[in-house]
Design a protein that fits this description.
The chain is 34% helix and 14% strand. The protein has four helices and three strands. Strands 1-2-3 form a three-stranded parallel β-sheet. The longest helix has 10 residues, at 71-80.
C-alpha cells in the first residue's frame, strides 16, 4: 500500500518526554522532520512535566506540536484506549 493510504487507517501519536524533548525545541535540527510528520497526520505531543523541569515554555517549542500534562500518564491513557506502545 501507498503510505498515503495507511495514514487514513492508522493513528500515530508520538509522546515525547525526558531527553527526547530536545527534538521538539524550535531550534532543533530535527524540527523539519517533526513538522513533516505532523503534516502527514502524526500527532506529536510534548510532556509539560519535562518542559517545566528543563525550564522550557511553549514559546521555546515547535509550533506544530501539542502538549500533555504528563508524558507517562498520556502513554498509560493511550494504552488503556487500545494503542500499542512502541519505544525506540
Amino acid at each position: 500500500r501507498r503510505s498515503s493510504d495507511l495514514k487514513d487507517k492508522v493513528e500515530v501519536e508520538l509522546v515525547v518526554y525526558g531527553p527526547g524533548i530536545d527534538m521538539l525545541k524550535a531550534e532543533s535540527t530535527a524540527g523539519y522532520r517533526v513538522n513533516e510528520a505532523v503534516a502527514n497526520g502524526v500527532k506529536v505531543v510534548a510532556c509539560e512535566v519535562t518542559m517545566k523541569a528543563q525550564k522550557l515554555t511553549k514559546h521555546d517549542m515547535l509550533k506544530s506540536v501539542g502538549y500533555v500534562p504528563g508524558g507517562v500518564i498520556e502513554l498509560m491513557k493511550k494504552q488503556r484506549e487500545g494503542y500499542a506502545y512502541i519505544r525506540p
